[in-house]
Structure formats: structure tokens, C-alpha cells
Structure prediction request, 105 residues.
Amino acid sequence: MASHLRTGSCEAGSEASTADTEREGRKLKKKWTHDDIPNQTGRIAIVTGANTGIGYETARALARKGADVTLACRSREKGEAAAARIAAEQPRGRVAFAALDLADL
Ligand SMILES: NC(=O)c1ccc[n+]([C@@H]2O[C@H](COP(=O)([O-])OP(=O)(O)OC[C@H]3O[C@@H](n4cnc5c(N)ncnc54)[C@H](OP(=O)(O)O)[C@@H]3O)[C@@H](O)[C@H]2O)c1
Prediction:
């Protein structure tokens, strides 16, 4: 009997926990998107590692919101290509490339 109660209680607990997690997940999804970034006009952003990954998405989002963005990357070829891809979307801010190898400061 005690074992049955423990099992029942555990299952009920885990169902509640799953529902809570799903509710939290929905809240988080609604909470923030790129569209929530405020106007960045007049600001200058220098984004390292901006030719790919998080850096690229950061540079792209800031330029779309009006910041003048410099993509600071160690590969000229990759950095210029990334800047061109962002510029092709006609963001509100200017987009430029600058050579920067963080391992060689
Ligand atoms: N805390 C967290 O939860 C979390 C989550 C995700 C990522 N991260 C971290 O955030 C960073 C970016 O992640 P990611 O997924 O966007 O990585 P990624 O796609 O591999 O991009 C890394 C960027 O850094 C550049 N880079 C590497 N060494 C460099 C150097 N010496 N000088 C200049 N640039 C250099 C790379 O340039 P090349 O293309 O020339 O190699 C690339 O542009 C990583 O450090 C990652 O560990 C943290």
C-alpha cells in the first residue's frame, strides 16, 4: 500500500512538473525575440567572431535595428562575405569588416 501511494504521488508530481515546464517554455518563447531589441540608431557595435554563429546573428540583429556594425573577424574572406550577406538585407545601420585576430593582440 505504501509503495502504491509513493508511486502514485511520484507520477502526479512528475505530471505537474511537466505541465509547469511546458507553461514556462511558452512564457519564455513569448518573452523575447529580435523584434524586442530597441532602436540602435546612433550606436556603434564592434562584434568579434561575427562571420558565423552567435557573432553573426548578433551583428545582423544590431544592424537591422540601426546600429553601425563592424564585424571584427580574423579571416578577411569570411568576414567580408558575412558583412556582404548582412548588407544585402538592407539593414538600417551600416555594416563594415575589420581584421582582428584575438590570439594576436
Ligand atoms: N555560455 C553559453 O551558453 C554559450 C552558448 C553557445 C556558445 N557559447 C560560446 O560563444 C562563442 C561563440 O559560439 P558560436 O557557436 O557562435 O561559435 P562559432 O560558430 O564556432 O563561431 C566562433 C567565432 O569566433 C571566431 N574566432 C575564433 N578564434 C578567433 C580568434 N583568434 N580571433 C578572432 N575570431 C576568432 C571564429 O572565426 P573563424 O570562423 O575564423 O574560425 C568564429 O567567427 C563560443 O566561445 C562558444 O563557446 C556559449
